[in-house]
């Protein structure tokens, strides 16, 4: 390449990374659902169980990425951007039309299905942001690029929470219309801007985007799913002696898989429960409702900081502290957080909510890398997909039904809407999480005892 062409190509690569950041921030808007879900409940007259079902479907759609991943692998990054943007725009505009035209006909089942599809569609943005960009500046800069993308995803929740608070508070239909137009515009910009290799660029030919799982954004900084065992051993003084590269039946019969699965199920599920119910928790406990949007934003900021800081610290301390102990730390932190919900003055609920975001970030900095280090790199995608099933079922199919049932036991009609006010609305759930966090702690310690390490000089 001539110098001028090299300069132009570098600009294209920088623009592609920026487009990826834009995509990740926009799909990170899923984390702001607690800002407007209570207002959507009032607008449609849903019960707490009904709106919780909607939130669960949104979470399930976003975290269960098997189906969009299957499609993405076959249609390439740029086509998937067009598909994802079209789906998101259509769903948001459809919800806007329904809320304005025939709100009485909108049921929790219908709205829940719409949000499940919406969650699935956001995965196309995640895949497209990561696939074409991860290697644009070489392996030596891959960690920096990925860290930027991860931070944008986490920050998206905080950004859209503040956006809703300042411009759309009490105007859910208008917010959905805005989101439909914004998603279409962002995805079109990404389609134009995402890197397309020149015909003579043999080092970055992307005929189809690499098969990256939607939840790969939770990998900590400076970590790559393509990192070899040799790289791992060179960069760490304490490594697992077992690198078996197992999957399928072998991994499902390995007790370490189920120990790790249980910690993800318990800890990530409890954090998602808090995130999706911030407004209801604050309302029921008599906390400052005017701070809900700020709390949602701080949850996302804490989540982002937890991922980045825990990822860096766990890497730097790996020669002394096995990574599984960061899961143990998250277990203790989650137990303490839910104890705080029971005893803290209601004016300070922002503290446990922010800490819940940090705990979630610590988990997402630890368990993806543990999956790779424990079961090998060859089948990392499949194995991480199996572990991530815990994300898809922990909150939607376990914590949320229990929380809705407990909430409904003490709920009473308030202006035609079932509301629960008082400590009993969520206390049983908090106590359950405290108990389960101890189970998670034991599971992480058992994992550590069954994982053998060797120190390198």
From TrEMBL:
Q: Where are the transmembrane segments?
A: 50-72, 81-103, 109-130, 150-168, 174-194, 257-282, 294-313, 325-344, 350-371, 383-409, 429-448
Cross-referenced SUPFAM superfamilies: MFS general substrate transporter
ATP-binding found in the keyword field:
no
Q: Where in the cell is it found?
A: Membrane
GO MF assignments? transmembrane transporter activity
| Membrane topology designation | Multi-pass membrane protein
**Any one Gene Ontology cellular component term annotated for this protein:** membrane
Record-given protein name = Major Facilitator Superfamily (MFS)
